[in-house]
Amino acid sequence: MRSGFTLLEMVMTIALLAVFAVKITSVIDTTTKTTESDIMRTTVDAQARQVLRQIGFAVMGSHPESLDPRMPAPLNQASLKYQVNLGISDGKVVWSDAEEIALEEGRRQIYWSDNPDAADERRVVWTSLVAPYLEGEIPNGMDDNGNGLIDEKGLSFTIAGQAISMKLTLEREREGQEPLVTTVETVVTCRNMVEGWARAE
Asked: For residues 161 and 35, which has the higher predicted lDDT (pLDDT)?
């Protein structure tokens, strides 16, 4: 009666176990990378939507005549100054100092600024993941992504009457992989049409 394993059988068994272990490790590693990528994509998507929501809430309380500059399509801009209605005092509308939302290209940041360019200017950075150009766009004087705009940056504003069209592309770099890119857009309407607006000095 035979008992135990021969040396050859033991070697083959160990080899099969090693192959099985490698496959299991590969599956686990792939699953982990996929999960990490999904989490990162979800995070970038959420940040893009949150930043666009912040911009929309900030500018919809402004007076349309306070918007500066006012680029109509196909022109566009990566910054926007505006003033918002603070309420009524002595029967007159009180307007805020100038505020600004802008792309700082060298740092890939979008910031909100109170009293821009003044000595007491305050800045708050809302994101540091802005792509150099909107998704699908390259700087060639043409509308590469078919959205009616030319050479738009990662943050883009266009103005049409009271409506402000906003587009945003965020880009998250990944080591050894293509960057994660997400683009969001919306249109908001200036709601403060009351008379008595005057540009802040």
From this structure: 161
